[in-house]
Amino acid sequence: MALIFILGIPLIAALLSFFTATTVATLGTIAVTASIIELAAALSITSSIGLNAPYMFTTFLGVDHLGAIPLVLLVFGGFVASIYARGYTEHEISKEIIGFNRAKKLFAQLHLFLLAMSLAIVTTNPILTWIAIEATTLTTAFLISFYNKPSAMEAAWKYLILNSVGLLLAFFGTLLFMTPELKGAHTGLASWSSLLSGAASYDPFIVKMAFLFTLIGYGTKVGLVPMHTWLPDAHSKAPSPISSLLSGVLLNIPLLAILRFKIITDAVVETGFTSGLLITFGIFSLIVSAAIILVQKNYKRLLAYSSIEHMGIATLGFGLGGSAAYASLLHMIYHSLTKSLLFFSAGNVFLKYSTTKIENVRGMVSVLPITGPIFFFGVLTIIGMPPMGMFFTEFSILARSLTVHPAITVGTTAALIIVGIGFIRHIADMSFGEPTGKLPSGEQNAWTIIPLIILAATLLVASIYLPAGIQTFIARAASTL
Amino acid sequence: MNPDTSLIAYASVAGMFASVILMHLMKRSSLTVWLYTLQSLLVVVLLTSALLKEFSWLLVLATLAMGGVKVIIAPKFFTELIRKHEVRFSASTYVNGPVTLAALAGLTAFTHAQFFRALTQLNSAQSDAILLSVSMMLISMFLIINRKGALSQMIGILSLENAIVAFATVTGLEQTPALQLGVVFDIFIWITIATVFASMIYQKFGSLDVSKLTHLTED
């Protein structure tokens, strides 16, 4: 029953936003109310799963331990983005950058985007997952070109073309995975579990080929190097509430699809095959993004490259397996929370300074007395400063990598140090010094601050104290990998 | 597949393969669209041959939807785009003609080499059609990479999708009709959005040549 709310509420909210809302306040109220209901439904599903069997609504709609983690992150991300979107759009309308109709479209598409992501997680059918992930591309293309500037248009076109090609390759890989299901007893819709149970009849070479295609295909959507080129453009051009969802939430979903295919592949061929590929793509993503972070000039692109870096870390951890898989799941959680926090902070900086160039932002801590320190806190978190959660997850992944190959540990450590230096240098420049121009000190409005406080508090608590029940839940999810 | 439907399937895939090769050689946008229409029609023929083997009303619906979207709606959108923005020629490529032909030959040879040959075990009676459909996938991707025109890139993606449908059909991996409808619906939305974007790009840049999209590098 709760799944009906997860899928039905965003649809209703999209329709209400588009057809009935007359003010931004109404749009905001619809969005926040909808996201609270979705959050309650997701928490209800997660608690009902507990340590028991997966929650099944129908044969092709259900949530298991592995799916519950991105689902909760999605609805929580949707909740804070809904609050933030109200303040953000109110400000953009007041400055006459956008009109009310544009705001209405933004909210309607935001709900459809949440719906597509939810469906991708809760469906148990791999083709439906593909359809839903493709739908996330289609619902967000116009959001990326939201400001209608030439660069935003280019970013959206690049996003549309590269992701479409990537997803078609993933579709091809998915079809190959379904060979035994469709060639054998054709019993209707295939599911992840039916594919796994039919693994004995797979041809190992075809499975390897299928995994390679799904990894490259969905890896494009995750932003793994070298298929990442669309990501920094798309994530930096979208309005901040959308960027937070693109970076903090969406990237987890194709990664989840890759993990589900990894489980099937590991049942057919030696584990080293998927591990080797995931480690290679993970470390490559980490190293390339670290180098670019160091010389980055645009703070939104900086955050986008950081997403590539963290998806690389998570992929590396999943490739290493064992305790690193647990750490990677936890890393996904911390990354989602931190990246949403950072993109909202970046949004506030943009609203105040009207630029995304690092060199044009100075004295952020004094000009934005709440956002400035929170942004700084977010940066410390994202680079894995102790005692924040990411320090422990990265440490666990590094520790595990030592047991596989010391070269991985050395490469990863070097890349993490470069990322740390790059971020500290940029954030220090932005935070202190004489403010650019004559900007008055103060925040835009409460709606742009509340989500920052919620996220910072959640991050702090989750880093210091993670309840045993949640740890066991994550361990249960990791055990399936 | 019985012998007649096997022949129909092979002829359809061979025709589709020829169409994507010709797309690389055509200079006029309208001819590229026409070739895509022909290719899509052959996909419908291929699905119809599957229908002859195993009839279901849902599959009829899926085939009709696919035909409606790919043979009628998409070409109509593209023709409108050409007419509206007068993009009669889209021959601009990153590599010249002889290199393009060499690349096409290389890609076709590669798909007939050891790596992809393993796929023929999915349906050994249609091994040639399987390898041709895989060649078509790679050649469609090359079309997306090599052409500078937004219209050609869109057609390249749709041709890649046609190649995957052809592969799925000749290997017997076609989805249940309900899922096929879902995929067709996705493709329909994709065509609509991509066409709108192409129009927006033309309005902003005065061209559909994607090599002129250089604003991101200035950021």
- Global mean pLDDT of chain A: 92
Average pLDDT taken over every residue of chain B: 84
Q: How much of the polypeptide of chain B forms β-strand, as a percent range? A: under 5%
Q: What is the N-to-C succession of helices and strands of chain B? A: HHHHHHHHH
- The total of beta strands of chain B comes to 0
- Low-pLDDT segments, ≥5 res of chain B: none
Task: Report low-confidence residues of chain A grouped into runs of 5 or more.
Answer: none
The figure for the number of domains of chain B is 1
**Structural class per helix/strand content of chain A?**
mainly alpha
**General shape of chain B:** globular
Q: Name the biggest interface.
A: A-B, 43 and 43 residues
Distance between the termini of chain B: 56 Å
The arrangement of helices and strands of chain A along the chain is HHEEHHHHHHHHHHHHHHHHHHH
The biggest sheet of chain A, with number of strands, parallel, antiparallel or mixed sense and barrel status, is: 2 strands, antiparallel
Q: Which percent band covers the strand fraction of chain A?
A: under 5%
Strands of the largest sheet of chain A, in order across it?
Answer: 1-2
Estimate percent helicity of chain A.
Answer: over 70%
Number of helices of chain A: 21
Count of helix runs of chain B? 9
What sort of overall outline of chain A do the alpha carbons produce when their principal axes are compared?
globular
Could you tell me the radius of gyration of chain A in angstroms?
Answer: 21 Å
Structural account:
The complex is a heterodimer of chains A (481) and B (219). Chain A contains 21 helices and two strands. Chain A has 481 residues and is mainly α. Among the domains of chain A are: 1-124; 270-481, no CATH class. The longest helix of chain A is centred in the C-terminal third of the chain and has 31 residues, at 323-353. Chain B is mostly helical. Chain B has one domain. Chain B is built from nine helices and no strands. The relative contact order of chain B is 0.16. The model of chain B has no long low-confidence stretch (mean pLDDT 84). The A-B interface holds A 125, 127-128, 131, 134-135, 138, 141-142, 145, 148-151, 153-158, 160-161, 164-165, 168, 171-172, 175-176, 178-179, 182-183, 188-189, 203, 205-206, 209, 233, 236, 298, 301 and B 115, 118-119, 121-122, 137, 141, 144, 150, 153, 157, 160-161, 164, 167-168, 171-176, 178-179, 182-183, 185-186, 189-190, 193-194, 197, 200-201, 204-205, 210, 213, 215-216, 218-219.
